[in-house]
Amino acid sequence: MIHSLFLINCSGDIFLEKHWKSVVSQSVCDYFFEAQEKAADVENVPPVISTPHHYLISIYREKIFFVSVIQTEVPPLFVIEFLHRVADTFQDYFGECSETAIKDNVVIVYELLEEMLDNGFPLATESNILKELIKPPTILRSVVNSITGSSNMGETLPTGQLSNIPWRKAVVKYTNNEAYFDVIEEIDAIIDKSGSTVFAEIQGVIDSCIKLSGMPDLSLSFMNPRLLDDVSFHPCIRFKRWESERVLSFIPPDGNFRLISYRVSSQNLVAIPVYVKHIISFKENSSSGRFDVTIGPKQNMGKTVEGVIVTVHMPKAVLNMNLTSTQGSYTFDPVLKVLTWDIGKISPQKLPNLKGIVNLQSGAPKPEENPSLNIQFKIQQLAISGLKVNRLDMFGEKYKPFKGVKYITKAGKFQVRT
Amino acid sequence: PVTCRHDDLKEMLDSNKDSLKLEAMKRIVAMIARGKNASDLFPAVVKNVACKNIEVKKLVYVYLVRYAEEQQDLALLSISTFQRGLKDPNQLIRASALRVLSSIRVPIIVPIMMLAIKEAASDMSPYVRKTAAHAIPKLYSLDSDQKDQLIEVIEKLLADKTTLVAGSVVMAFEEVCPERIDLIHKNYRKLCNLLIDVEEWGQVVIINMLTRYARTQFLSPNQNESLLEENPEKAFYGSDEEDSKDDKPDAASLVKRKPYVMDPDHRLLLRNTKPLLQSRNAAVVMAVAQLYFHLAPKAEVGVIAKALVRLLRSHRSQGNWAAAKAALSVQGMFEPYLKSFYIRSTDPTQIKILKLEVLTNLANETNISTILREFQTYIRSMDKDFVAATIQAIGRCATNIGKVRDTCLNGLVQLLSNRDELVVAESVVVIKKLLQMQPSQHSEIIKHMAKLTDNIQVPMARASILWLIGEYCEHVPKIAPDVLRKMSKSFTGEEDIVKLQVINLAAKLYLTNSKQSKLLTQYVLNLAKYDQNYDIRDRARFIRQLIVPTEKSGALNKYAKKLFLAQKPAPILESSFKDRDHFQLGSLSHLLNAKAVGYQELPDWPDEAPDPSVRNVEVPYGAWQGLPTLRFSLSLSFPDPESVSESESESSSSSSESGSDSGSRGEESGDQSEEEEEEKKKKKKGKEGPRKVCPESAGRYHRHWRGEGAGSATSWELRNTSRDMGGLQPISPCLDSFTSPALERRDQLITSQPQHVPTAFLPPSAQMLSPVFSTMKTYELLHRMAGEGLSVEYYFNRQPFPPDPHMVAVQIQFSNNTESEVKNLRVSEPKLVSGMRIQEFQEIALMPGSMVGIDTCPQLPGVNWAGSFSLWHVSSSTHSRQFYVSIQPPVGELMAPVFMSENEFKKEQSKLTGMSEITEKLTLLDKCQSDHTIVQRVTAAANVSRVPCGADNEYRFAAKTVTSGSLILITLEQKEAARAHLTVNSEKMVIGTMLVQDISQALAQ
């Protein structure tokens, strides 16, 4: 299946290679570089490239291209998903999935890659199992190891590998038993010129941090589970229970993991927490234009909208912008033509406004298109869909765990057309 | 300096300090990771292969696997270490030794690898077995001659029941012998049932393989539909014709058109994969989606839409889009999610274009106005490639949906005044295409475009307009010469491509309307003759020669008009997703639209289903991990002696109906084809090994016994006597259906010889029906309406079945409600599943109004079975019918009562706690409060006996499962206010769960 993996940074250096079968020369990456050049934008590099003898399947994560070499038929998503899993594992082990982190821990990276694939077929990708085989680096451990000469490798088969709950190890002990759930919802929306919603849906996830001793069996129930239109589960969740009772019943993995992702889509249900008033216009033959944007809270359920950032990709003809903002600060990148307005909190009393003049290249024709506004925001303590966790029960263990649920709403791909 | 550093490393490796070795190995691995050559260190490194420090060892392994291929001789030094490792008591060490050993690509060790793999395949640890499965394709790629031996290992591992091994062995199967679909038969149901517990990557591989498998083994679930679509009229008119000819073909065609019934195994696959649509792993979701796309009835494919939309939304959508793009072309499925495909200005261009493609595909009469409104927004985008794609999309909508064609055209005409060349060029091209479809209706637009030449400056657009006017100059006879006049005026100032089109226009006008344009044409050609660009000069010279007749001009002159004004085919605007249908969805080949190496074709559905019984497995009791549904079907019947020839054809068609036969056959061609078949079969066997039971050979058995039966009455007679002699003892009553289908069928044939069978001839286990006990619950098998006068009921008489105590007796009762005698009644097609056995019974005849009962005793292999068998009822010599029926025994009948004391009960119960204990709370109804009713209801629901109990609010019952003799203990504890606790203790958890359900239901009635 997966023959080789090359990690390439943005400047085109191949800084790591790993082969699971015979060695494939680095020169195969030239096809990738070619495609990359053609695409101009990193996002537009085709994920699958066909070369005379191989196929290259790549992902782009944290400014690194993960380029895998394939020789025979394999579902492309299989490879893509696996590469993401590799990146996730690095993230998990080193706290970040960056070029420096990988270079600093190259031996562990290599050991991980060795365990994750055997002959190109995934072997152990569950972080729990990997962590028993190869211990993540910590400062303390590396000091101890350098003195005692003991190793980072597990000497026995991880217990998860053989159990039917591979995501959890057998012996887990905590002095403080805690279970935290973060319900994070993102609003994806397209708002048209007149302010009406063209499209809106809520994408939610429940991220969990569970530190419980032993083999706890949890069940999490919601006040309004019917809201969830489409759900995807961590393998630990018992599908049958969900189907019949709409209860999430599971033996959790140890540590951080994503319990479910869900979607709430039904336009009338989605409350749009902000509104935008905008005038962006360019005059014919005057090499200047007007820019006036006001943003305000709407249906915010008594919660403050914070962390508001407006990003606008201005037309190419724009040279500069002279704006004044009543709140927050703005920057305009004249190379990328990106205007960023960092607003912060919106208070309903005094709506933030940004207005001024847009300078165009002299002689350039009036831009035909109006830029769209991309808006980011955050609302704490609110799940915009109205989803509420009802209760969390634990079976199988005697102690009383500390439980917590946090809600947060964010803007996902939130775009206002002008 | 490089060699210096290496010396340094060598020194460290030679030292006897592990920490130094480790440091050296780390540095070497870092070199390998950067792609630097470290091969000269091989001798120094390989020495450390037996190092005690596990991390050093692991890193040495990494090094070895990387360089062994280059330094084969030295690599051999390490082999003995691995061979030792293979015997290590620690399973992790065994596994990693095998992993490295098999990863060293040195041909000379192939025999060692083979041996190691074989040994590991029967290792106790499933992890080692998994590693063995991984090693198979490694060895195969090193030496493909080992294929046969490897297939044996694969076969063995396929039978493995642990989820850990399943994914890996199927992966090996796919790489080594994907064509050996027969190896899957017996593992099919197991794989379906294990699927949900297999790790994600294995799931993908298994699902893809099963998709292919299902395509070869089941019938298309959409065949009814396609039949209806194809020839509803034919079928209607056809019957008239056939009436006049003969009855037989009519019957045959009826059989052909019988309603499609999905094979339960096919359903099993669909049912067991569906939950995986909710997997977090995109590859699994896609795998299930393609499975549904290729295997599910059309009505059910829609379920994948939701999951696919989810994939596309993911933050990692880039690749997902690419991979899923094909699925998006499925018509209609995504309509509810139309808006999810609306485009944001921040999407990468690739995704924008894919979304556009989907939107275009989804466009129909009802939503087109919304979609066009969206498109209007997109046209103003900054991303010009995307705008161009949008314009093309509009063009496609216009071609597909006639209603909006004019709107689209007008919209596109407006775009002609866009400032962006690309936009204009693209619009002109699309308009050109649209106009080519029906030019006569659009002379207005052509006129409009002609006017545009005054304003539009984009050369490409001007050129396109000129081409259009030239091409359709006959539709705009007045304007065209005028345009030429204007253009000739400005000719010298035009761009080259425009000049060329001016010349073209002039030529075309000259040919159609020479009167008005002759002078103009010559003027233009003269101008062109002295143009700076030699292309233009050449063109002018060429055209002049071609169109202006002179003495010198050749034969081409005559055809000038044909050359210039030939009918040009309208370009077809269609989706780029087209023509990929033949690839398996979500595969690399599908994405690239080219066959990738190792791609396995997705076969077409077979016309007739291969024998489903090949998937039957003898399963030792208790081996089940899931809750399987077992079926059995009983076979067959025989026609009356007088009507052999006539009903032969019918019975053959009916047997093909039952799915056991792959081909149709006729009595006439019997002998010859049989010989041929025989030969073929032998060849096949030679090639594929004796163990294979392929669909053909299963069909062959059928033929075989039929032929023999017709020819050799002697053998039957012999058997018959033996049966008479051993009258008291049923003769081989319990045939294992799987191991000896041929034998069994022959047996049937014998018993089915057309003779009048008096009741006394029935085996001893069949008896005249005594009145049914009032407590016995009878179940209907065949209603008399459905059975055309024959009704069949069955019940469990709870009597021990003497020939085999592991069987459960089922009494089947036949009643003839017709006027005439029902003869030759028998159970046919004994294709029993999973170790189920059935007591054969002979053909019987029923006088009108009479009843007969028969004990037949399927052995129950495990938890649950549902049976189906077909009954053949011949009521007259010309008419025979076959009925499909099924028996679904309640779990309570699969046990026999045991008597035990209270103490014994308590003792046993204490052993069966934890997982083996199932408790349910229930509320007892008023009428169900008394001792008597409770006991009666429980014993009616299950074949259990009461155990004495000291407490008066508690009831205890005990039983043993018939097949394995596992204890089942039931406790019913009455609490205050009609509440009660029902507890079942049994190591057979599935039985326990079902029993709890059944009993609580019985008590609630």
From TrEMBL, chain A:
Annotated PROSITE patterns: CLAT_ADAPTOR_M_2, MHD
Q: Which GO terms describe its cellular component?
A: axon cytoplasm; clathrin adaptor complex; cytoplasmic vesicle membrane; Golgi apparatus; postsynaptic recycling endosome
Q: Which residues form the MHD domain?
A: 176-417
An MF annotation (GO) of this entry = small GTPase binding
Write the record's keywords in alphabetical order, separated by commas.
Answer: Cytoplasmic vesicle, Golgi apparatus, Membrane, Protein transport, Transport
| Cell compartment(s), UniProt | Golgi apparatus; Cytoplasmic vesicle membrane
Family annotation (CDD domains): AP3_Mu_N (cd14837)
One GO BP annotation is: intracellular protein transport
| Location (main, coarse) | Golgi
Q: Which domain of life is it from?
A: Eukaryota
Q: Cross-referenced InterPro entries, in alphabetical order?
A: Adaptor_comp_med_subunit (IPR050431), AP2_Mu_C_sf (IPR036168), AP_mu_sigma_su (IPR022775), Clathrin_mu (IPR001392), Clathrin_mu_CS (IPR018240), Longin-like_dom_sf (IPR011012), MHD (IPR028565)
Identify its membrane topology class. Peripheral membrane protein
According to the UniProt entry, the coiled-coil residues are none
Give the record's family classification: Belongs to the adaptor complexes medium subunit family.
What does the record give as the function of this protein? Part of the AP-3 complex, an adaptor-related complex which is not clathrin-associated. The complex is associated with the Golgi region as well as more peripheral structures. It facilitates the budding of vesicles from the Golgi membrane and may be directly involved in trafficking to lysosomes.
PANTHER family associated with the record: AP COMPLEX SUBUNIT MU
The protein's name is: AP-3 complex subunit mu-1
Q: What is the lineage of its organism?
A: Eukaryota, Metazoa, Chordata, Craniata, Vertebrata
Automatic annotation (TrEMBL), chain B:
| Positions of region (Disordered) | 638-715
Alphabetically ordered keywords of this record: Cytoplasmic vesicle, Golgi apparatus, Membrane, Phosphoprotein, Protein transport, Transport
Domain AP-3 complex subunit beta C-terminal stretches: 742-861
The record's subcellular locations are: Cytoplasmic vesicle, Clathrin-coated vesicle membrane; Golgi apparatus
Q: According to the UniProt entry, which residue ranges have a biased composition of type Acidic residues?
A: 669-678
The record gives the membrane topology as: Peripheral membrane protein
Q: Which GO terms describe its cellular component?
A: AP-3 adaptor complex; clathrin-coated vesicle membrane; Golgi apparatus
Q: Name its GO BP terms in alphabetical order.
A: intracellular protein transport; vesicle-mediated transport
Query: Does this entry carry the keyword Phosphoprotein?
Result: yes
Family recorded in the similarity comment: Belongs to the adaptor complexes large subunit family.
Q: What is this protein called?
A: AP-3 complex subunit beta
Organism equals Chelonoidis abingdonii (Abingdon island giant tortoise)
Instruction: Please name the gene that encodes this protein.
Output: AP3B2
